[in-house]
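Review form for a predicted model. The reviewer records the input and the model, then writes brief findings.
Reviewer: anonymous (R2)
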Amino acid sequence: MNMELRQLRYFVAVAEELHFGRAALRLHMTQPPLSQAIQALEELLGAAVFERNRRGVALTPAGSALLPEARRLLAQAQELPQLVQRAAAGEVGRLTLAFVSSADYSVLPPFLRAYRAAYPQVQITLQEATSDLQLDDLLHQRIDAGLLIPPLPDRARADLDYLPVLREPLVLAVPSGLPALKKRGKLALTTLLPAQELPALPLIIFPRAISPALYDAILSVFHDAGVTPAIGQQAIQMQTIVGLVSAGMGMALVPQSVSNLMRPGVEYRALAATTPLVETGLAWRRDNASPVLRGFLESWKQELRKTALC
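Model under review:
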């Protein structure tokens, strides 16, 4: 025989009234079935919860121990419909989001602040990962969504949806203190040639296998300027690339938002020539029916409407 919530409600009413008659009136029932229900509860528990005598009704030690737990269970049961409704609306649950490092200096922090304010009971697990790893994790359902640099490869397009969230130009990150940096304003890449004011600096860049679109966009800037860069160090994280620039190991072209990453010994400068726009977007599995994901995507779209990207 299983305990019923009805029995706990009856027990709490008698425990609070310490009178079967008053408790029956409160429960809109007669006293005999209430007494029978309490007796059945005691038989189920294997212990008396009330002492009954001519002076009235009192809780036994077992009853005193049961009362706070009974109240807790009844309160939780009362909250269940609201909990289910909130879960169905995507207001309660879990979501795993991966992101490329550049998103951490641009769209991710302000969005998360807004999302957390709107959905405080959604637990978000964040993990930094390159675009190629995110695509694999999405296809194998290890994450719910990913902030990555497109394009999506052919193998992923059938299973994934995509929403652009940011487009930004490339800027130059160079070791500070170089003579040409004394000139204010935008820099031309030709100033990086040995014949000009700056010494030749090797290019620090992502491996092409990690982010082919970003790699090709960076090299196209040099190609359009008639400059052939010497590829130096390669790194997969923006903070590592900027750290290598800080150490004087070379120069880098990075998305504009990375200039929010301030490191001693690094100066960011806009380029005189127009650069390709680097896009960051949100990808997710098309067959993921999670209400939490649905609310998460709608929050992104609301934020993007403010910037005319959606």
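Findings: The domain at 93-167+279-305 is CATH 3.40.190.10 (D-Maltodextrin-Binding Protein; domain 2).
Further findings: The first strand starts at residue 50 and ends at 53.
Recommendation: see findings above.
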